[in-house]
UniProtKB/TrEMBL annotation:
This is Putative enoyl-CoA hydratase 1. Residues 16-123 form the MaoC-like domain. The lineage of its organism: Bacteria, Bacillati, Actinomycetota, Actinomycetes, Micromonosporales. Belongs to the enoyl-CoA hydratase/isomerase family. Gene3D superfamilies: Hotdog Thioesterase (3.10.129.10). InterPro entries: HotDog_dom_sf, MaoC-like_dom, NodN-like. Pfam families: MaoC_dehydratas.
Amino acid sequence: MRSTTVPTPTGLLDLVGTDLGTSGTHVVTQEQINLFADVTGDHQWIHVDAARAADGPFGTTIAHGFLTLALVPGLLAEILVVERSSMGVNYGLDRVRFVRPLPPGVPVRGSATLMEAKPIEGGVQAKAAVTVEFAETGTTCCVAEVLFRYYT
């Protein structure tokens, strides 16, 4: 794991183009996939029916793409630390691709590069290119351009 720490949101302004680091590894379990299916109402068999999924295109169940995407804020919080801010908020996404499916039990990690940072009223808005990759192979699972705001 490797992270970047800035004392305040304005510290991001000098880091545009910088590799911010890499998170620790995380594993999505079948139980988490099932709970996500319950929350979203997406109970498609490729996510929740292990017996049927074993004969399916991936040979196992897979996490919902949006569950994989939901890992990004936590991964980014490990990678980028803003020490003194009143709050941070997710502001949106500019681009997301689910490059490869995420089977349960497979460790993933995140990495991020700061693409943009600009002052806004009360803080800084930033965009990071975040990659979720399989920890053992470095193969990309998901990529996202994530917009977030830190307020002073």
